[in-house]
Design a protein that fits this description.
Largest sheet: 6 strands, mixed
Radius of gyration: 20 Å
Strand content: 15-25%
Oligomer: single chain
CATH topology of the largest domain: Rossmann fold
Helix content: 25-40%
Bound molecules: 2'-monophosphoadenosine-5'-diphosphate
Length: 287
């Protein structure tokens, strides 16, 4: 009975999804559906709203529809872990999952956010992240993905700055690196030390578009300043960094690379990053 069911499912077009709440404005369906079309893959990708606390009730019906993989976003990135059969070591260390692969009726959890960010740094062709002094601003979920990935990658010297110092200290301890945890004021005064500065907080996004997480007066002229925010495409932090002569990167390269890594896990195919980039910019410019 089970094998017949599995055989019938495999003849259906593939179903993929992103689950979260809110989810209506997710760009992931536009991106993945365009990639499926471009690569002639018979599959579709849906945005599915699931409220906090409803995963155990809702996931079985998604699987019953033949879902082969899904992305997980706010508020489920941590809660999904208790429903998985296997967890990738990096996702385990991050403590959050953004991509699930359904393989032989098993749910396997991954985190492609941190690796997506690490890959995005390759856009800076002169930067060697393994030799760099890196300042991470923030200590929430996004910071955790980036810190753990950089820590596992090795090399980079990490400093974490946060409004609440205890959270930065906790994240640093968890990362098992010999870095530093400092306040935002300290970060401002010793900013000249850092080769790479990464904003992982929501400061710069609406309704805080006219704010920056810290002042850049001491930044090095040739520092790399990254913001993981992509709406707006250019935060005030990036605008100020550019004016100081820094190299800048918004959140789009990380966003498309986390999606590309998920797509590769599901299909084994490497998607076209340029196509993905164009879709994101077209969507953003419509807003
Ligand atoms: P995410 O999961 O998206 O990273 P989060 O877990 O809510 O979001 O984390 C938000 C981060 O932004 C935290 O580091 C937070 O600082 P605190 O730990 O002190 O709360 C930081 N943050 C948010 N708003 C801020 C503000 N107005 N000023 C300074 N830091 C802020």
């Amino acid at each position: 009975m089970g094998s017949i069911f599995a055989h019938r499912l495999s003849n259906l077009p593939g179903l993929y999804a992103v689950i979260g709440d809110p989810i209506a404005h997710s760009m992931s369906p536009n991106i993945h559906n365009a990639l499926f079309e471009n690569l002639n893959i018979d599959a579709k990708y849906e945005a599915i709203q699931i409220a906090k606390g409803q995963l155990r009730e809702e996931i079985p019906s998604l699987l019953g529809r033949g879902c082969r993989g899904f992305n997980v976003t706010i508020p489920h990135k941590v809660d999904i872990i208790s429903l998985l059969d296997e967890l990738d070591p990096l996702a385990e260390r991050i403590g959050a999952v953004n991509t699930v692969l359904v393989n032989n009726h098993k749910l396997i959890g991954y985190n492609t956010d941190g690796p997506g960010f690490l890959e995005s740094l390759k856009q800076f062709d002169k930067l060697n992240i393994n030799d760099a002094k890196v300042l991470i601003i923030g200590s929430g979920g996004a910071a955790r993905a980036i810190v753990m990935t950089l820590a596992m990658n090795g090399g980079a010297k990490l400093t974490i700055a946060n409004r609440t110092l205890s959270k930065a200290q906790e994240l640093l301890m968890h990362s098992k690196t010999s870095g530093r945890a400092i306040t935002l004021d300290e970060a401002e005064s010793c900013l000249a030390q850092y080769d790479v500065i990464i904003n992982t907080t929501s400061i710069g996004m609406s309704p805080q578009r006219d704010k920056t997480p810290l002042k850049l007066q001491n930044v090095k002229k040739d520092a790399y300043v990254c913001d993981i925010i992509y709406n707006p495409l250019q935060t005030l932090l990036l605008e100020e960094a550019k004016a100081k002569g820094c190299y800048v990167q918004n959140g789009v390269p990380m966003f498309i690379r986390q999606a590309a890594l998920a797509f590769k896990l599901w299909t084994g195919r490497n998607p076209d990053l340029n196509q993905m980039n164009n879709i994101v910019y077209q969507n953003m410019l419509k807003k």
